[in-house]
Amino acid sequence: MAPSIPEKQWAQVVEKKGGPPVYKQIPVPKPGPDEVLVKIRYTGVCHTDLHAMKGDWPIPLKMPLVGGHEGAGVVVAKGEMARGIEIGDHAGIKWLNGSCLACEFCKTGDEPLCAGQQLSGHTVDGTFQQYAIGKAAHVSKLPKDVPLDAVAPILCAGITVYKGLKESCARPGQTVAIVGAGGGLGSLAQQYAKAMGLRVIAIDGGDEKRSMCESLGAETFVDFTKSKDLVADVKAATPEGLGAHAVILLAASEKPFQQAVDYARPRGVIVAIGLPAHAFLKAPVFDSVVKMINIKGSYVGNRQDGVEAVDFFARGLIKAPFKTVPLEKLPEVFELMEQDKIAGRYVLEIPE
Ligand code: NAD
Ligand code: ZN
Ligand code: ZN
């Protein structure tokens, strides 16, 4: 028997750019022919949701908006053309809610680059609600024995850092500097890096983040709020002091994006992932050339990256701390995030 679906539901709705989100009742959406309706049980809060509320980026923004794009739950309805996923399956809704599936990028496994993409919690409503819509082709099918609270952050943060580490081409035994290591993406990046055989230098601020990073397997923690010479401290932690083989930039602030070349190893790869508003990547031409530095961007992951990132998690290799609070508390989570006070991730529990 199909589950009964109410007409109305609780949601956090951003009604004007800048917020705050308003906790209120709104209609439950109906899935289109190629879509599924997921009853969300847990959803992570990504810094991207805060950027979205503030209108930080030069891309279309739906308003009013239900944010959220790390939603894990159960499929309760599907359109007649939705393939590969059934009512009752556990599913995750990601940042990439849908793409055209027909353009050059979609055909070559680069669907995050599709010009026809839909973004959960930016161009379409996301997962800060009891029932959310996803394109059947893009929702992540989740194994039933995987806990829905802990897997939620994998759906954006996990996939993104896993993809970024692959883009860095760092090999087992090499050293990766993770900038913003104490945040949501950073905590997961340390776990994926470790599972991939990489050595981690964690860069972030404060004692709570230091002890979290040390427990997640970082060999060295450099505190950017206390270090007198961050570049020297990072280099000192790398083999022969020559710098990091890879730098993964996850901070939502601009400064580290202008500093990474200084502690990257010759031939090092710098992967920009964090998306601070109105920021620029700036690097000295001379050092970048004579050190043969490779600077690149990395944007979420494709559907197969999603499958692989969830698989690492399902095999028990990825354990990052998260705190669970009710959906109602989203404004408080945003306040803590704005002040860089969150070690790891917050996960919202959605009312039944
Ligand atoms: P977060 O707030 O949980 O973590 C950011 C961390 O950066 C915090 O721990 C903060 O203390 C730290 N930080 C701030 N300034 C720093 C500095 N100068 N040096 C070192 N660390 C510093 O945020 P999050 O959810 O992990 O997201 C991080 C960024 O990644 C956001 O901009 C988000 O929008 C972006 N993001 C990008 C993608 C992508 O596909 N490229 C995907 C998801 C998120
Ligand atoms: Zn496309
Ligand atoms: Zn995200």
TrEMBL record:
Gene3D superfamilies: Medium-chain alcohol dehydrogenases, catalytic domain, NAD(P)-binding Rossmann-like Domain. Signal peptide: none annotated. Its cofactor is Zn(2+). One of its GO terms (molecular function) is zinc ion binding. Pfam families: ADH_N (PF08240), ADH_zinc_N (PF00107). Residues 18-348 form the Enoyl reductase (ER) domain. Its EC number is 1.1.1.1. GO terms for cellular component: cytoplasm. InterPro entries: ADH-like_C, ADH-like_N, ADH_Zn_CS, ER, GroES-like_sf, NAD(P)-bd_dom_sf. Transmembrane segments: none annotated. Keywords: Metal-binding, NAD, Oxidoreductase, Zinc. It is an enzyme of class 1 (oxidoreductase). Belongs to the zinc-containing alcohol dehydrogenase family. This is alcohol dehydrogenase. It comes from Penicillium atrosanguineum.
